[in-house]
Amino acid sequence: MTQMSAPLAEDQMKEWSSEQSRLRGLVIQHDTEPWQQDPHFSGLKRVAGVDLSFIKGDDASACAQLVVLSYPQLEVLYEDSQMVALTAPYITGFLAFRETPFLLEALKRLQENKPGLMPQVVFVDGNGLLHYREFGIACHLGVLSGLPCVGVAKNLLNVEGLAKNEEHRSKIAALQKGGDSFPLTTSSGKVLGKALRSWDKSSKPVYVSIGHKISLDTAVKLTHSCCRYRVPEPIRQADIRSREYLRSHFPPADT
DNA sequence: GCGACAG
DNA sequence: ATCTTGTCGC
Q1: 20 to 30 A Cα–Cα from A3, which one of A38, A42, A96, A111?
Q2: Could you tell me which residues come within 8 angstroms of residue A169 by beta carbon, excluding any fewer than 6 positions away?
Q3: Which protein residues have a C-beta closer than 7 A to any atom of strand C?
Q4: Is the CB of A96 under 7 A from strand B?
Q5: Which CATH number fits domain A28-249: 3.20.20.60, 3.40.50.300, 3.30.2170.10, 1.20.1730.10?
Q6: Range with the lowest mean pLDDT among A21-25, A165-169, A171-175, A212-216?
Q7: Which whole number is the average pLDDT over A227-253?
């Protein structure tokens, strides 16, 4: 009889690593949709954002959020908040194994309840190809859902020589206005993403990378076009609404 | 060995 | 991710 046992953390990470390497080959790094070819993204009507928010002392309970916004108006057309019980811990490089299952469930609910509102592209809070094994959560969600995805991280993941060193800070300082960007090139010369000044009033950039079914330049341009503030509106709305859900359903513990 | 490390 | 108010500036 085959015995199953909870793998040690290190073995679990090895399994996850090979899973990421396997799925990495399924990522499509070019524009596959008609609207992506158009200078003004004509034909793009719905963009989504996903995020998970947690309660302070509980890292196992979270509110999984999916929002669909109109484009280019960026008004919320659909919202889904769902409390979920996470099983996987947060380990840098393996964020997808912790959060993706619940994001896929949210997309599934959308498909069943409002199929007409299925998004044409999903913004994910985190990285895509800008990852240790070039398969961050944006790629993971993209490959498993089949939807075009863009990864937008608020902090730089230190992969293959990328770091917030002097040279990096210098390049950031050179970003003059919203829309300006520079490539994030690894020590081996590969471009894994771009640092983007998402709007005029932010000195701190966001890190954009390919998730699935979109080119890097299109992802950067689209991200900029979805920014009212530093963080793309779809992700920002998902964050705001999931936190609001927690505030109203799980009031801070009193004395 | 030490530090760094998406959310 | 989360703990946290006001404050300075456009």
Answers
A1: A96
A2: none
A3: A 52-56, 59, 125, 154, 243, 252
A4: yes
A5: 3.30.2170.10
A6: A165-169
A7: 92
